[in-house]
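User: Show me a protein chain along with its predicted structure.
Assistant: Here is one chain, sequence first, then structure tokens.
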Amino acid sequence: MNASNTVRLTSIGDGDGMLITPRPGHAGFRALLDAGLDTLLADAGHLLIRGFEPSVEDFNTLVRTYSSRTTLDPARVFHGSAAQKVDSGHDPIGLHLENGGTPYAPDLLWFHCVKAAESGSQTTVCDGYRVWDALSDRARDAFTAQPVRYARTVPAELWRRLAAFMAGDGRGHDEVSVADLYEQANPGSKVEFTENADGSLHYDYQVHAAHPTKWSTRPAWANSLLGPSFNYETPDIRFSDGSPIPDDLVAEYTGITEAVTEEIQWQDGDIVLIDNSRVMHGRRVITDPDRTILNSQSYARS
């Protein structure tokens, strides 16, 4: 079924983002299963899907339909087979890729607003294409010359939960090892794991701050340099040669990302789908904690 026959597409914001709403006679959730969301996402970078009134199970179904497999944040609680509740405190959250400071960044990031906040709490999105195009030659040269290194220590119960989930072979948390983490890392990842005496794990991961995206060779400034550390140790972030990122470059990319950042004003039932290789996301301060947002992380079908 042609997507244009079931959904209406409208540009939102100043970038490529797209609003998807139902056409008359196609208000049901199932219209989304045939709408080619992955194809639309390749052009738009992020999609705001509104007016389909999905249940939590509908959301889980949608994720599974467009995904080859799902992954997780080991510090969050599941709601259904694919969704987890977003629980990251009340403070604002800086722009980042989901799991962008690890070798497990998913292709797709999904959000489902079960109950919208009455004020504040907007999710922010920032298209990495726009940032890269606006950076100075000096900044682009510096971040092209070498990757960025993220280093931190993760408690044993968290890395083991992730390893067991991603292995997906029925083994429990106590049956997996660091070897499983290497095996499940995204192809081409440059990462070194070191298991500590207490069972915690130190990792050192290198990745370029700007890189081609899932669906394009065009470089996007898409990383976790400004990202959160809720539930985790704050990572040490520097260039791969060990040198710190200069303050003036930090000021430059911080200012540019904020200048092209857009806000999603949530409504009950909204779904947002993000290309996690291109578009960073964050959050404004939560002024109404009585809200419920679920998210899911997944890999696109080939």
